[in-house]
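ok so for the tutorial part 2 we go from a plain amino acid sequence to predicted structure tokens. step 1 is just haveing the sequence, like this:
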Amino acid sequence: MYLTLMLVLIAVFCVFAGIFSGGIFTIILVPVAAIAVVSAVAYLLMARAAGLEAARTPNPTKQPTGEEKPAPNAPGEVPATPEDYVDALRRAQ
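step 2 — the prediction. this is what the tokens look like for a chain of 93 residues:
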């Protein structure tokens, strides 16, 4: 158990030493990775904020207002049933 912990610590140290030892990693890839991490965090925060707003469930006891009512069917239009969709799929094949 302690050997595994020691190996993990050595591996993490080697990764950091390799990244910050200089050369192409330090000059180009570290700033690019930092920019990618910052933009990923910002994107996740924006997506979470949008998801929380969209995830609100409507109150079942609340009566719908004019904006929330579904649009009525056009005159002469009949709602389709699942059987109608299956028949149309069979005809299309």
